[in-house]
Design a protein that fits this description.
Bound molecules: zinc ion
Number of helices: 9
CATH topology: Beta-carbonic Anhydrase, Chain A
Radius of gyration: 17 Å
Helix content: 40-55%
Number of domains: 1
Strand content: 15-25%
Order of helices and strands: EHEHEHHHEEHEHEHEH
Number of strands: 8
Distance between the termini: 27 Å
Strand order of the largest sheet: 2-1-3-4
């Protein structure tokens, strides 16, 4: 059973590193590794899995922090939901550039986790994009929405015929990550959004969430699709 919980940004450039370095951990991801909206889910996962260690993975050149910086320092419009869930917490904080904002974000999310989990090893491991090898950004961006779990992304990319680095990945639920999904569709140009059903999921819930998202996202011109990985796995087994 997994003993480590990773809370990471949804950035596509982190996919391979998460899969390689945290393959046995349970992973939760949203825009900016923003802890507050996920807290109920995090608490439940910590209890259910007897989590011993929480690792927070933020990163530089973060799209969520770009959006936050633009909203606060340049007055660029952001949706009310994104303001509530992400941007608001930085309005009373001092920072002058994006790098400082990213550092504050790491500090604040880490502090939020430490306040909540006093008996668990909680630490941050900010990723540096200069240290991650990423192929040229020449493919259309997509978004995968998955439930929290081990980052077995390879099988999903293969099933969908997608490149690991073209997909942003939200691992949360509609109830706590809809503004993040909208951010990916609008600002990060992920015009195809896949709701993926994994073994641990209730397929009816995934369908319901996909339908909810489709209603919200049609106005932005994003298309919601569903992929059932349970049937894909069954097919693979039959072949062997
Ligand atoms: Zn990010």
């Amino acid at each position: 059973m997994a003993e480590e919980l990773v809370i990471s940004c949804m950035d596509r450039r982190l996919n391979r590193m998460l899969e390689e370095e945290y393959g046995d951990a349970i992973v939760i991801r949203n825009a900016g590794a923003n802890v507050a909206p996920l807290m109920q889910m995090i608490k439940q996962i910590v209890i259910d899995n007897n989590i011993k260690r929480i690792t927070l993975i933020t990163h530089d050149d973060c799209g969520a922090m770009k959006k936050t910086f633009a909203a606060i320092k340049e007055g660029i419009h952001a949706s009310e939901d994104l303001e509530d869930i992400l941007i608001k917490q930085f309005r009373e904080i001092n920072f002058s550039d994006r790098q400082q904002l990213e550092e504050k974000n790491t500090e604040m999310q880490l502090a939020g986790l430490k306040r909540e989990f006093t008996n668990i090893d909680v630490h941050a491991k900010p990723a540096k994009m200069s240290e991650i090898k990423v192929p040229p950004d020449d493919k259309e961006h997509k978004l995968l929405v998955l439930s929290p779990g081990e980052p077995g992304y390879g099988r999903i990319f293969e099933g969908l015929g997608l490149d690991p680095f073209q997909c942003y990945i939200v691992q949360a639920s509609i109830s706590n990550a809809m503004p993040d999904i909208e951010l990916a569709a609008k600002d990060l140009h992920a015009k195809e959004i896949y709701f993926v059903t994994l073994n641990q999921d209730n397929p009816r819930e995934v369908k319901r969430d996909a339908d909810t998202a489709a209603l919200r996202l049609s106005a932005i011109g994003a298309e919601v699709k569903r992929q059932d990985m349970r049937t894909m796995r069954a097919k693979g087994k039959n072949l062997m």
